[in-house]
Amino acid sequence: MNTSWPVPAAPRPLVPHAEDLPDPTVLPVPGGYFIYATNNPAAHVPVVFSPDLENFALLGDALPHLPGWARPGFTWAPEVIAVEGGYRLYFTARLRGTRRQVIGVATSASPVGPFVAAPRPLITMLDLGGAIDPDVLIAPDGKRYLYWKNDGNAAHQATHLWGAPLSEDGLSLAAGPVWLLTASEPWERELVEAPQVIEEGGTFHLLYSCADFGDESYAIGHACGESPLGPFWKTSAAPLLASHGTLAGPGHSHAFRDERGQWRLAYHAWQAGAVGYPHGRRSLQLSALHLEGRLARVG
């Protein structure tokens, strides 16, 4: 393990394909990869380290203390980026006094944490059901953009994907939100979420999840555009990745470049025959991601 990071002396070995690591995000660093996931009974933001994407160790909780506005037990879909002098953690949490999820931001000098959350949420969208699933693009010109979903299905409303430029310090939006995409295909089942935008060769690829995370219908879709905020158009009448073989309901993906510069896709999936809690686990999966012009394929 890269000893330049302050990690516990004896981190717990982890078998990611057998343990619950939903909504994964990957932060490549010199010497390895940090992986963050949705809360579990022991941590608000579990953080895992892997030197090679083959061996994994659970380090602990990157966000050991929630801000006063957040209710415990609903801390989802973290995203961590490097900024000058430290790191930013974007996360989803339940706003106290409501039944709505909102997005917060936290700061740390280390990718391990502890991250300290800002005293107020970054994005709420309460009139649209709340806001979840933050993700950040660092564009080729160095500008940062935040993407998320309005949690309309929590309030019997439509779900949409949104984006906005971030301030230079990453702690606020630099402009208002832009609508990017909504469900239009039968296999999306009227729900889109978990957006991520990545850039390759001047094309901006929007990866997103759709349908019901709790069953085999969950899948990953793909769209592309010519700027970080679109407009985006869907490139296929079928999912980029759907249930297959022993994997059921793959989704909430995060694309990243490995140490060789190759695109990889992290996502979670149930095991066929063990879909849904309490018996199933949304385990971490890793696949190759190929971007070919305006198209994408997995595997």
Automatic annotation (TrEMBL):
Q: Which GO biological process categories is it annotated with?
A: xylan catabolic process
Sorted UniProt keywords: Carbohydrate metabolism, Glycosidase, Hydrolase, Polysaccharide degradation, Xylan degradation
Domain of life per record = Bacteria
Site positions for Important for catalytic activity, responsible for pKa modulation of the active site Glu and correct orientation of both the proton donor and substrate, renumbered to this chain? D133
Any one GO molecular function term: hydrolase activity, hydrolyzing O-glycosyl compounds
Does Membrane appear among the keywords? no
Q: What InterPro entries does the record point to?
A: Glyco_hydro_43, Glyco_hydro_beta-prop_sf, Glycosyl_Hydrlase_43_Enz
Sorted alphabetically, which SUPFAM superfamilies does this protein's record hold?
A: Arabinanase/levansucrase/invertase
Family, per entry: Belongs to the glycosyl hydrolase 43 family.
Name recorded for this polypeptide: Glycoside hydrolase family protein
